[in-house]
Amino acid sequence: MSTHKYTALFESSGTVLAPIVYTMDRWIGKVAIVTGASSGIGATAVKALATAGMDVIGLARRAERVLELKKSVPPEVAHRIHSHRCDVTSEQSIVDAFALIDHQFGGVDVLINNAGVSKLTCTLLTAGNGADLRTVLDTNVMGLVLCSREAFQSMKRRSIDGHIVNINSILGHKYIGFPNLNIYGASKYAVTAITETLRNDLRNEGTRVKVTSISPGIVRTEMVPEGEQFQDTPMLEADDVVGAILYALGTPPHVQVHEVIIKPVGEMN
Q1: Residue 233 has pLDDT above 50, yes or no
Q2: Active-site residue among 6, 22, 184, 247?
């Protein structure tokens, strides 16, 4: 049984209408893929979705770390957690991973595009920065697009009304002058545009597949540099972002949460 339920009461002309229940029950026994699943938001999402009753495949270059997650959940949840090594900067690696999941699990119903990277060692003007900048774009932009493509093809073949969730950032909506973010902000602006493009492409395909962008402020993960720079900075926890994922997934089939922006209380930007 799912433990994730949300109820909303709508009022019209002073009359309270029947409640709409937001629940993960429709996804029990279905298959979710989480990219970048070895740590942070991805690892937390793997555990939450498995707890909600889904079979979850965590894709990561460090696939062994996904398997370690089994030790932190009850046995009845652990058996729903699976891992596969995948490098989302490689189209062939993505294609092979989704083909294997189609073969072993029958296809994907939910995709969480979480894999992301920043390279804080250079600016846009640093000499010899090409490889770092390409890694950010290949991971944050092309990896997300190609995973979405493969997930949609799996959903389309099986006539599944699935859901694609893109982990975006507030940096995908406004420029913030943090040092050495170089092309990271541009990559997240791309995710904002891609989410809108996907929504229109999915509609034009005649499907009811949903797409949602989740845009958090700073989240306490391995991507945040250690040291005094962020010592007093309000931060979100991975659980906060995953709560938004569960909310979006739990909406009724006719409801599409298109964008969620989440900031920690006290954030300046």
Answers
A1: yes
A2: 184
